Amino acid sequence: MARYRDANCRLCRREGEKLFLKGHRCVTEKCSFEKRAFAPGQHGQRMRYKVSEYGKQLREKQKVRRVYGLLESQFHNYFEKAEKTKGVTGEILLQMLECRFDNIVYRLGFAPSRKAARQLVRHRHFTVNGRTVDIPSYEIRPNDLIKVKDKSKNLDIIHSSLKEFAQTDEIGWLRVNKAALEGELLEVPKRESIPISANEQLIVELYSK
Questions:
Q1: Spatial separation of the C-alpha atoms in residues 146 and 149, rounded to whole Å
Q2: How many CA atoms, within 13 angstroms, populate the side-chain half-sphere of residue 49?
Q3: Closest C-alpha among 42, 26, 10 to residue 116
């Protein structure tokens, strides 16, 4: 399976903002974006140019795609599905991405990043409604119950992540029981309750050309 293997911090620098791809490290002084908040590459510090409308649309799409850790083909498939669904295409797109299994695991605080959540899911550490699911793109629906398997409840990565998660604001459309290591999607999130700074309309305009 194709996947991104380069440094994650380069992606943040290319988009000009923190994408929080490395969990708690991104909010510490160790974050490389704090030291080099300019585009990667030999001429990154000198890259000063006017961005076209297409360039703005492309950057917004790349930013959202990289936040959720998807390949271009995967992201485009989500857009096509959102476009065929009744409602506001951009909002539906973000809702679909938020309801991915790996993203829900991350939002619940069981993993420090979406990349780590994806690995935990693939290694079969979670169940959904009592059934083991190892597909990161699996769509979580309202009232689905996500649990950490009994044999995985002692994993350091889960407990350290929950410890850091305790310092952040909890998300209203999720319920998490840290003692039982389980969580539930209460409802499909509305756009205003999705904690991501993105102009999804630019993505719709890009793909609609």
A1: 9
A2: 10
A3: 26
Residue 146 has a pLDDT of 98
Averaged pLDDT, 80-98: 96
The DSSP code sequence of 120-164 is HHHTT-EEETTEE---TTPBP-TT-EEEE-GGGTT-HHHHHHHHH
Closest CA to 186 of 107, 87, 88: 107
Q: What is the mean pLDDT of residues 101-120?
A: 94
Bridge partner list, 177: 182
Q: How far is CA 186 from the centre of its chain?
A: 18
Instruction: Tell me the CA distances in angstroms from 55 to 103, 104, 126, 194, one per residue in order.
Output: 27, 30, 40, 24
Burial class (CB in 10 A: 0-12, 13-18, 19+), 204: buried
Q: In one letter, which amino acid is 12?
A: C
132: left (phi over 0), alpha (psi -120 to 50) or beta: beta
pTM of the model: 0.81
pLDDT computed for residue 198 by the predictor = 87
Structure tokens at 109: 């605080």
> Where would I find the H helices in the chain?
8-15, 32-35, 53-67, 72-83, 89-98, 101-108, 114-122, 156-165, 200-207
| Type of residue numbered 141 | R
pLDDT single digits (tens) 31-50: 555 555 545 554 445 555 67
CATH 1.20.120.420 given to domain 100-187: no
Neighbour count for residue 70 (Cβ, 10 Å): 20
Q: What residue has token string 């297409």?
A: 54
